[in-house]
Amino acid sequence: MEAEGKSSSSSSGYGKPPWIFKGRALYQLHLVKAETARAFIPKEIRLVEAFGYTLGGFFLANYDDSPAGVFDELVVIAGIVWNPPTSCAWAARVLVNSDEACVHGRKAVGLPSHVARFSKRITPIPSQQGSKNKKNGFLNMIGIGNTFNSPKDRLDVQVTEIHGRTSADACSVNLNTDVPVLKPEKWMGPAIKLSLPSFSGHTVYNPNLLKYSCQIECRVRAVKPAKVSSPSPGTEKEKEKESSSKHQILSSMESTTVVETIENGENLCVSVMLSKPLLALEFSCLNMQVEAPIVVSRHSKNTIGGGS
Predict the structure, then answer these.
(1) Could you write out the DSSP letters of every residue in 176-195?
(2) Relative to the CA of 188, which of 10, 131, 180, 283 has its CA 20 to 30 Å away?
């Protein structure tokens, strides 16, 4: 599949690419059912799968320096797609607590970006030194026991997607981490450089199929996978009221078919987040350079819901 050229210029405030983001992040890989991932991926793109599963997950970042200032981001990764001679990730949904970052993601990068609220709470966890040593006995024998984080506090991140005048909980992410995160005596892992190529586009804001790359420099180490929980069920009346209010607002903007697509996409994103975790990597001292997307193919009739 050959690229046709550069995508449209950046949105207001971001300036010319490449765009630089600094901070820290958790990159967690999951086994995602192929049928779930295919709901987000254009039919003309081949999903990389084996035994009915693909490799998805999420990227949860806190940027303390970026073109949009300080903000949080949750990228739900549906799976891996094949683009010879390499593979690329496909984002099912992107949640940010910055209007500027949301607009830029939608229009300049072709991402299914949405505005959300990130609520954070730190909960102290009693130390269980004996139990920890037993669990890490084998890892210590092979010399990587200290690579994994020894949790002392839990950081709970509640992500609530905002739809106009209403909102709905997207998910809750529980992170076991030291607080404060950066301590002088804490080993942050080796310094690495990597490139994360991704496809994007096929949304109502950017219908073209795009490809872009994130060049990352950071310190990386394996950590305990974060626990993800689905939105709080609440009472039946609360759920009905929330669903009705949200549906009315979406219906005022979109057709019934698009509304159903958006709501179904949200449910599938939760399924991706709740799938089985395989590996979690903590990126500290993160310096991420995002290149301008290139247009791989022009507008297709089929778009993926990303414009609510």
Answers:
(1) EE-SSS--TT-----EEEEE
(2) 131
